[in-house]
Amino acid sequence: MGSGALEITQTLTIPDAELIERFVRAAGPGGQNVNKVSTAVELRFDIAQSPSLPEPVRERLLAKRDRRLTDEGVLIIAAQRFRTQDRNRQDARERLAAFIASGLTVPKQRIATRPSRAAKARRLEAKNQRSQIKRGRSQKSHWE
């Protein structure tokens, strides 16, 4: 059903057997064509059970808060941008590859810092100036 293994990087490929493609009718405009031809693609990839993914990558992908990810760890990508089934399938595979590639990079650890004394002083001075401006607005004007 697929078009070969999906290559993410030179070292990481997802075999076609792990991808489940389902062709459905697309929604939206398209006239008669959209009503009779199943051009939209629903691509499913089980991240939680995939033997192809290294464990740290799997954990990073499952930790993402993506609405396309089910509670069971299955990523569902729906592609219906194009008129042809082949182009939608290619689009879905590209989006899956991009999603998996985003899990390959290790996020940089944040180093906790505190604002300096001068930065705190600048902040308080700005707040004080702002309050002076607002206080000036509330007092009666001189021509009444």
What is the topological layout?
Layout: E1 6-7, E2 13-14, E3 19-24, H1 31-36, E4 40-46, H2 55-63, E5 74-79, H3 85-102, H4 117-138
Antiparallel strand pairs: 1-2, 3-4, 4-5
Walkthrough of the structure:
With 144 residues, the chain is of the alpha+beta class. The chain has a domain at 6-102: Double Stranded RNA Binding Domain, CATH 3.30.160. 38% of the residues lie in helices and 16% in strands. It contains 4 helices and 5 strands. The chain has helices spanning 31-36, 55-63, 85-102, 117-138, and strands at residues 6-7, 13-14, 19-24, 40-46, 74-79. It has a 3-stranded antiparallel β-sheet, with helices on one face. A hairpin with a 5-residue loop joins strand 1 and strand 2 (13-14).
The residue fraction in helices comes out at: 25-40%
In DSSP terms, counting alpha (H) and pi (I) runs of 4 or more, how many helices?
A: 4
Measure the end-to-end span. Answer: 83 Å
Largest beta-sheet characterization: 3 strands, antiparallel
pLDDT averaged residue by residue: 83
Strand content: 15-25%
Give the class-level CATH name of the domain at 6-102: Alpha Beta
CATH architecture of the domain at 6-102: 2-Layer Sandwich
According to DSSP, the number of beta strands is 5
Which consecutive residue ranges, at least 5 long each, have pLDDT under 50?
none
Element order: H for helix, E for strand: EEEHEHEHH
Structural class: alpha+beta
Rounded to an integer in angstroms, the radius of gyration calculated over CA atoms is 27 Å
